[in-house]
Amino acid sequence: MSSEIGLVGLGTMGAALALNIAENGFDIAVYNRTASVTTDFVAGAGELAPRLTATETLEDFVGALAKPRTVILMVPAGGPVDGMIEALRPLMDDEDLIIDAGNANFRDSRRRAQEAEATGKPFLGIGVSGGEEGARHGPSIMGGGQKAAWDRVSHILEAISAKFGDTPCATYMGTDGAGHFVKTVHNGIEYADMQMIAEVYGLMRDGLGMSSDEIGTVFEQWNEGPLKSYLIEISGKVAKATDPKTGKPMLDIILDRAGQKGTGRWTAIEALHAAAPATTIEAAVAARNLSARLDERKQGEDIFGAAPQKIKTSGLIDAIEDALLAGKIACYAQGFGFLQSASDEFGWGLPMSEVARVWREGCIIRSTMLDDMATALTETPDLNLMFAPAFAARLKDSHMGLRKVVAEAAMAGVAAPALSAALSYFDTMRTGRGTANMIQGQRDFFGAHGFERTDDDTVDNHGPWAMNAQ
Ligand code: 6PG
Questions:
Q1: Hey, which of 126, 229, 261 would you mutate to test ligand 1's pocket, going by the most ligand atoms within 8 Å of its Cβ?
Q2: Which residue's CA lies nearest to atom 5 of ligand 1?
Q3: What does the pLDDT look like over 378-431, one tens digit per residue?
Q4: Cα separation, 113 vs 117, whole angstroms
Q5: pLDDT tens, 178-224?
Q6: 19 with 45: CB under 8 angstroms?
Q7: Which atom number of ligand 1 is nearest to the Cα of residue 139?
Q8: Beta-strand runs (E) in 291-412
Q9: Is the pTM of this model over 0.70?
């Protein structure tokens, strides 16, 4: 019997996704470059094995699929995806669908979708979030490409996705690279969320002298309130864990050098290209880059000494909770703002409130707050998220906490780049009269670039610099 769908690439994510598909009642053919991986995978699939067909060659794999065929690629992003498309296409019919479900750069998905459009061979680029656990039991899925192709497979993607209540967290976002773009911004926000949590961990550890276990308890408490989220939950677990080898807190054993595969960085790069403010995400990416400079940081510590002082202020834990809340709102305001500008630039018509909805479950940044964001983006779609009434109210209550925490961190010598960026964004966006008049004055002084006046509508004005220079 032919399989309804096929999957290429049985790495951690591919294997988990294949089992999820099988568990949801779909027969699936699987293929991996190393044939023994495929046979071992199916042999180890237990009661799901009857739904899985192991294939050893691409020809067998394609031959095992019901027509019109659907193939999901879970191979490393970039060249390997192009290579696999090139190898598969000659074996497939024109109407067969290829889905790239890896962490692709959206520009690659755009190109592949455009090629597919030109040749009439359907292609979807879908962002899948939730790590291995999500892929296995319900990820968040962000689709991009031809709507007709999405409609062909949406029943499978919705079935395997996470559910918020009864609502599947699988949504069509728009044409060509839209799905992978939304996933990229998800990852940028993921970086910023993680970085802000790491910053307050640092403040509690170095500024307040708290133990990992005490910090873990604070995270657990926060996870009962408005900060409730997957990342706060796992941060509590990470902080509470003990290293089985030494018996010390796990966090004291983990080296402070962060890895990154690139999607968070892409968000920052694309945001700069689009002139969209994504400063909290940029700060988070830069913090990961700086974390890699371990030897240099140690050199700095030898010269300047460790953080200058402990924090004596009482009641800082509540302020830190507020700081995370305010920082998170500012960060998501930037993320959604960036999605909107990209949507305008690429003509995607991204369904902004649906983006928030699809992130409510399954993905790494899932949180209670995303449900409120979905409501705000539905009710006031044209407003900066910080200005939507429900979030403006929260910011009014919490921005003083953010301010206090950034100030205390500065005085204690604890770096808090993402929280500082969030505060600066908030302060900039609440300032009707900023300071770019000085920038314009400088530009006109050295380059006669011209400026707009505050007292009329003229644009190409110049100051009396030549006169002053003499
Ligand atoms: C997800 C994650 C995932 C990402 C890892 C590692 O949504 O499931 O974003 O796609 O690859 O979190 O990312 P970094 O190596 O860049 O930290």
A1: 261
A2: 131
A3: 999 999 999 999 999 999 999 999 999 999 999 999 999 999 999 999 999 999
A4: 6
A5: 999 999 999 999 999 999 999 999 999 999 999 999 999 999 999 99
A6: yes
A7: 8
A8: none
A9: yes
